[in-house]
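Need tokens for this chain, all 43 residues.
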Amino acid sequence: MSDDRRTALARLARLSTLARPLARGGVALLVAVAVLWLAFHLR
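Here are the structure tokens for all 43 residues:
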């Protein structure tokens, strides 16, 4: 059981470290799309 928990925790830690920059990039991409959409429609 302890080994399974350790591997699960390691997997979660790896996923969180990978997900943080991905989430930041996704947010930045959404902001860029929103700004472009607004600039295009407010012309």
